[in-house]
Specification:
Blueprint: H1 2-6, H2 10-24, H3 28-39, H4 47-72, H5 77-103, H6 111-138, H7 142-170, E1 185-193, E2 203-207, E3 210-217, E4 220-225, E5 239-241, E6 244-246, E7 253-255, E8 261-263, E9 272-278, E10 281-288
Antiparallel strand pairs: 1-10, 2-3, 3-4, 4-9, 5-6, 6-7, 7-8, 9-10
Helix pairs in contact: 2-6, 4-5, 4-7, 5-6, 6-7
The chain binds FE2/S2 (inorganic) cluster.
Residues 105, 228, 230-233, 247, 249-252, 265-266 line the site of FE2/S2 (inorganic) cluster (FES).
């Protein structure tokens, strides 16, 4: 149902995602660092999810403070409510910024992008209501501020529900390898002859049913899971630079030695394997993450 509701917004959704790309592209390396920060690559998962907790939790607390003030006539709660709403409002601005940064890397013309776009638009409306509530409170009009907060709270609750839908249905901004990393094997398993592995060229091999990307440097081989932790892009088709590989889809960059994230949008490190050369065969053991 949400997909049907969001589908007519596809033009707007695609436009917003493209505009975000156009904003970041000219910023070069500093823009990349800003994106890393907003994606939450440094945190190990989405920064947006953290800020959303503060928005919804803060708005709930303000609602409670307003109700207590109305019932018990404790006027000093007006000030507390305004401060908490200020914090929730700042977090809402951060949530919009982080959300837009994550959003630009969704697949064009996809149901995931449509529904995520609907989620974002609804939460922008909620943020407008929070802004009006805050301004009214700063003007000492706390009763009107309560009603605008209530509107914002109801709207943000719908937005949060839709946000949960895109995470749980589409796996939006979660580790793409969460359910496919496989059980860790203690033994080393041969996957390819060293002689068949080209030097310094990302190469896809199979370890049982798992695709793995290998990079050979002389007699040393590095191994990462083939599918990118961000959204499943093929790492063996990525760009190898020094000891990093950059995914061709949205340019997450991982260290080939251990799968750690160098640049987002990926937040989760890439699954890695121990590799050794034994009697001319490349053997893998793992996975590790
Ligand atoms: S799939 Fe998005 S960066 Fe790899």
């Amino acid at each position: 149902m949400l997909e049907r509701m969001a589908r007519p917004l596809r033009g707007v959704s695609n436009g917003i995602a493209s505009a975000m790309g156009a904003v970041y592209r000219p910023l070069g390396a500093p823009g990349r660092l800003l994106q890393d920060f907003l994606n939450g690559s440094w945190l190990g998962h989405s920064l947006h999810a953290v800020l959303v907790d503060v928005v919804v939790g803060g708005a709930t607390a303000v609602l409670l403070l307003d109700v207590l003030r109305a019932f018990f006539g404790i006027e000093s709660l007006e000030t507390a409510a305004a401060w908490v709403l200020g914090l929730a409002w700042l977090s809402a601005l951060g949530a919009i910024l982080t959300g837009l940064t994550d959003y630009k890397d969704t697949a064009p013309n996809s149901a995931e992008r449509d529904v995520t776009g609907l989620h974002g638009l609804i939460n922008i409306v909620a943020t407008v209501a929070f802004t009006v509530s805050l301004l009214l409170r700063l003007g000492a009009n706390h009763d009107a501020g309560f009603w605008w907060l209530l509107v914002g709270y109801l709207v943000v609750s719908v937005g949060a529900y839709i946000g949960g839908h895109v995470v749980f249905k589409y796996g939006y901004m979660v580790n793409h390898n969460a359910f496919s990393r496989g059980k860790r094997a203690k033994e080393f398993t041969p996957v390819v002859a060293l002689a068949a592995l080209p030097e310094a060229t990302p190469t896809k091999v199979e370890l049982g049913t798992t695709a793995v990307m290998l990079v050979r440097r002389g007699d040393v081989v590095h191994a990462l899971k083939e599918t990118c932790s961000h959204a499943g892009g093929p790492l063996s088709k990525g760009e190898l630079k020094g000891d990093t590989i950059t995914c061709p889809w949205h340019f997450s960059t991982f260290r080939i030695t251990d799968g750690s994230v160098v640049h987002g949008p990926a937040g989760s490190r890439q699954v890695s394997y121990r590799a050794r050369v034994n009697e001319g065969q490349v053997e893998l053991q793992g996975p590790y993450d």
